[in-house]
Amino acid sequence: MTDTEEPGPTVPPVFGMRTQWCGALRPAHVGDKVALCGWVARRREHGEHLAFMDLRDREGLVQCVIDGSVDVRSEWVVRVTGTVRRRPEGTENPGLPTGEVEVGDCQVEVLSRAEPPPFPVDERVETDETTRLRYRYVDLRRDRMQRNLRARAVANSAIRRSMEQQGFVEIETPMLIASTPEGARDFVVPSRLHLGRFYALPQSPQLFKQLCMVGGLDRYYQIARCLRDEDLRADRQFEFMQLDLEASFVGQEDVIEVTSAAVRAVAEALAPERLPADAAAGFPRMTWVEAMERYGSDKPDVRFGMELVELTGTFAETGFNAFRDRCVKGIRVPAGASMTRKQLDQLTDQAKQWGAAGLVWMRVGPEGLDSPVAKFLSEQELAALRAALEAEPGDLLLLVAGDRGTVRHVLGLLRLELGRPAVGQGDLHFLWVVEFPLFEALDEVGRPVPAHHPFTMPHPDDLHLLDAERSDPAELLEVRSQAYDLVLNGWELGSGSVRIHRPDLQQTIFRLLGIDEATAQARFGFLLDAFRYGPPPHAGFAAGIDRLVAALLGEESIREVIAFPKTQSGADPLTDAPSGIDPRQLEELGLRVLPPKG
Ligand code: ASP
Predict the structure, then answer these.
(1) Which atom from ligand 1 is nearest to the alpha carbon of 204?
(2) Of 100, 124, 279, 420, which has fewest CB within 10 angstroms of its CB?
(3) Ligand 1 centroid – CA 204 distance (Å)
(4) Contact present, 243 and 545 (Cβ < 8 Å)
């Protein structure tokens, strides 16, 4: 190589049966004798005396030229020795990083034969997901999966580096445990040595990380596998990975800072061009109430407008019954007036399915509002409505009335339905949502349902509400907590909280939740015991790594960043899990399987 020539890309060192990576060859290597290993991506015969073969390895493709014919097929595994040379003028391929060169005088040694692949590895061919997962080992050869899994490794290492720099210690916690309090269904494992008893797989390391704090470890983190038996979606798998962290003698602000630094390190490594310039100064905050009022969601996608506008006051005295004495909010869909009647009927049905009593639509024309309900509203009301929503001709206005929770929920979903950009579009809008309510609802007997696990510390300014003699239990829903979520472009990346470390407060919360002493002892006895021996104040967080990586890579489904995911129905078409087990094994575990119900 001469000084003036461009060196090849930075690639990992080679060893073993190869002397170079296929994808790394550049004009700088012209004249080098090389040995390459990989899969046959394509083969073309040029008459009897010349064959071209594209050879693929982890780093990319290179063209190999063979004098004479060669018996290889797609996806056979070969070792090729030859000499790097410039491609003849006019035959370069600018679309390929190795496109200026080829390997000539090739000798081909077949290492493995392959049946024709179930689908072409070539990225341009769309293949349905079940087939991709059934033959995941073939799918993994594709550029997309290679890129995504390597990005994931970069994310993990950026996380580790950041956490270590911040003084956190990586500590592993067990997989076979007692149940954890995240509120999902547990996966359970029967015990052979203790017949009739079961381990739970961790929904998170929550209780163990709190024990680590009692144990004086002070700053814990782990890239932890969590298992929850919940319905699967594009952004949810039974097993998923979290950056799980906990620290002692800290509060909410400290945890937010530590987590932001780790997440920012990942974003800087994978998608620096999408990180807003001010991200280094910290991610913006929004209270839960503001998020719900403006976006109808606790994970607002702030990449686009269409915010929920308060109209309750506008219609306080209206003669239109559907709007009087109710919460009324609306959104403006820019240029939405072109929607057809049929589309609007579909939207209305959708809104009803989400819980609304109805959906009021108004098309904004140059003359006024075109809407079936316009005749029920006064001129003043219509003018005030237009002004509040800043309506322009060509827009569509959508209004929902009812109880505040339903109005926010339905309009929040309509907003996403009509405006949400693809996850990979636009800048990365990280957002901290703070001051979540401590309780999310009241159950049938009027008891509060916790919004997070029962160890979440209430907001210091709302503590008095917990002790007060209350005539209306609904007041409890006003109590804020020191729980916080991190959101990225409308995806919930994770949550955390300051924990309760004072036994009296913990008792109060258990009492409110209707968890009596025996139940508390049975479920979390070991943690409560530990808290008798000097628990420090502590707080933590957990951020979903699958979602973070998927969002940074612009993948809508986390399955695209997981090497071996399950399908939406929780099955694994590759290994055929879940499967039946041997009767002898059942017997050993003391189990009998009942026939399916119905
Ligand atoms: N354990 C919680 C979760 O997995 C996060 C936390 O509070 O640290 O959602």
Answers:
(1) 4
(2) 124
(3) 7
(4) yes
How far apart are the CA of 364 and the centre of ligand 1, in A?
46
**Residue 46: Cβ-neighbour burial (10 angstroms; 0-12, 13-18, 19+):** exposed
502 CB-near residues (< 8 Å, 6+ apart): none
528: nearest Cα among 214, 219, 172, 203:
214
Q: Which atom of ligand 1 is nearest to the CA of 203?
A: 4
Q: Is the CB of 206 under 6 A from ligand 1?
A: yes
- Tokens in use for 37? 């290993």
**Residue 372 to residue 588: CA distance in whole angstroms:** 69
Distance 298 CA to ligand 1 centre (A): 16
* CA dist list (Å): 100 to 17, 112, 145, 330: 25, 29, 26, 58
**Rounded distance from Cα 97 to ligand 1 centre (Å):** 44
Question: How many CB atoms are located within 10 Å of the residue 267 CB?
Answer: 20
User: Would you say 121 and 114 are in contact if contact means Cβ atoms under 8 Å apart?
Assistant: no
Segment 405-432, tens digit of pLDDT: 999 999 999 999 999 999 889 999 999 9
From the CB of 455, is ligand 1 less than 6 Å away?
no
Q: Are 102 and 63 in contact (CB under 8 A)?
A: yes
In this model, does residue 467 exceed pLDDT 80?
no
pLDDT of residue 8: 63
pTM for this predicted structure: 0.93
Report the distance separating Cα 155 and Cα 134, nearest Å. Answer: 27
Is the CB of 182 inside a 6 Å radius of any atom of ligand 1?
yes
What six digits make up the tokens of 344? Answer: 């609007």
Ligand 1 atom at minimal distance to the Cα of residue 245 = 8
Task: Decide: 497 in ligand 1 pocket, CB within 6 A.
Answer: yes
- Residue 2 confidence (pLDDT): 46
CA of 205 to the centre of ligand 1 (A): 8
Helix spans in 271-378 (H): 288-295, 341-353
pLDDT digits (tens, 9 = 90+) for 50-102: 899 999 999 999 999 999 878 899 999 999 999 999 999 999 999 999 999 99
Give the distance (Å) from ligand 1 centre to CA of residue 38.
Answer: 43
Structure tokens at 530: 């530990």
- Give the three-state DSSP class for 310: strand
Tokens representing residue 126 in the block? 């769309």
Q: Please state whether the peptide bond connecting residue 578 to the residue before it is cis, i.e. omega within 30 degrees of 0.
A: yes
How many CB atoms lie under 10 A from the CB of residue 287?
14
When pLDDT is averaged across residues 20-27 and rounded to a whole number, the result is: 97
Question: What letter represents residue 266's amino acid?
Answer: V
Q: Is the CB of 542 under 6 A from ligand 1?
A: yes
Asked if the bond preceding 372 is cis, omega within 30° of 0, the reply is no
C-alpha span between 207 and 215 (Å, rounded) = 12
